[in-house]
Design a protein that fits this description.
about 80 residues, 3 helices, globular
Length: about 80
């Protein structure tokens, strides 16, 4: 629960910073930020539910960032197919 609290407290400032960082790293400017924050919330909950199945040496923040990056890339690919 501490991971959820870290990313969701203070109007999700830490979650938004992570999303903005990932978008900048991937040079993505075409996705709607609010939609990306929503995707990040979904990914956060999915990762949190799945995390206990991972080996003990897994770092939650790294795992979450990797999953979020993959989901945002998938979203970009899906939007490019529509356009």
């Amino acid at each position: 629960m501490e991971y959820l609290d870290f990313y969701c407290r203070n109007e999700a400032i830490n979650l938004k910073q992570l999303v903005n960082s990932v978008l900048a790293e991937l040079h993505i400017k075409t996705l709607d930020r609010e939609e990306c924050y929503s995707i990040a919330n979904t990914v956060l909950f999915e990762v949190w539910k799945d995390f206990h199945k991972r080996p003990e040496n897994y770092d939650f923040k790294i795992y979450f960032r990797m999953c979020l990056k993959n989901r945002l890339k998938t979203e970009l690919t899906a939007q490019n197919r529509i356009n």
